[in-house]
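hey m, so remember when u said the tokens were messed up on ur end? i reran from scratch. heres the input so u can diff it against urs
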Amino acid sequence: MYQYMRGREHLVSLCMRNAARRSLSFLVLLLIMTMLMCANYKTSLQENATATSGIIVQADDGSDSTWWRRYFCRKVSYGKDAISLPVLHRDVEPSAEDTNIFMLEMSCNPRPLYRSWCGLESWALQNRRSAVWLVMLGTAVDPTGGLLLALEHAYPNLHVVTVDLEWLFRDLPTKTLFSSGQWADSSWPAKSLSNMARLALVWHYGGFYADFDTVCLRQTEHLRNVVGSQSANYVNNAIFHFDRHHPFVHQNMERQNISFNGALLNVNGVNIMSSTAKMACNTTNFDELVAQSRGKCRSFTVLPQSAFYPVSWENWKDIFRLGAGPDLMKKLNSSFVLHAWNVFSAPYPVRVGRGALYDLVSSAYCPITKRRVVDEERVWYSPY
């Protein structure tokens, strides 16, 4: 009996030791499996994150998920009647064979004001054979009481689109500058981005770029590879034409990427284009260049001030001075464009029928927009 009890205790002890070993082995195996599963899960997460990151970077869906659009559009709300815009390059592609005219809305404003529509209409009216592109940062546009639809009906050459900036700056000298976000931290973020984007658009497709605060006075389709002087020392980047992949455009982008300064308004646009033009034209005085060689440079032409800037920035108030319009109209005889110098004139409303130059010009060059102003507002407000 004693031996039986000793044997039974030994068997129980042996069974317990074996069970403990099996439990320990199971726990070790479970731990190893858990570690392997965690490692695989982490790898899967990393792979998914990388894949998702690639999708976000390459996405061209015009959504507000991009960091640059969130920056500008964070306070924007679209009404129920807002029209979703096609995406440039993905949904619609300008032809490099056609004459393109690009205008930019880089503040994410879905409701541009009447002076903006006037500028857009004037370019479409005077250049019927050209494709006129309003490129907006936002993904939709407010139909503005039917004005946009009226303009699109009257001008089949008018197109309103949005743009994917990741695509626009891809493989360009300004890609690093764009990706760094320095322009967003500048004193003039919309203007800084516009200075970069206008060159990129013309580089991709060729054609004219024109600011919103311009009114086109006559056909420009015969002008190729031109910039306009605004004084002896400066050309301006508010209006210019260059063929697709023109080296002067590339030189400007290279200088933008190297010399960007977010504290000053004109450094990244007017100043860079002026200094690049002086080097290309081997001149220090654009007035002398125009007088001596009709502005001819290596691969482009500098036009006289009267072409694009008949009223200088120092005299911008003349454009809006009541009663001054009839006399000033004579200054426009040799002009292709009237530039309204919005940086100064933005808070300056223009009342209809009071003889201001801008109001007189609008009657002839943006008649549909002018009629809407007369019917609704009776005041021309600035683009921004």
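this time it looks ok to me. The CA atoms of residues 351 and 379 lie 5 Å apart. if urs says something different then somethings off w ur setup not the seq
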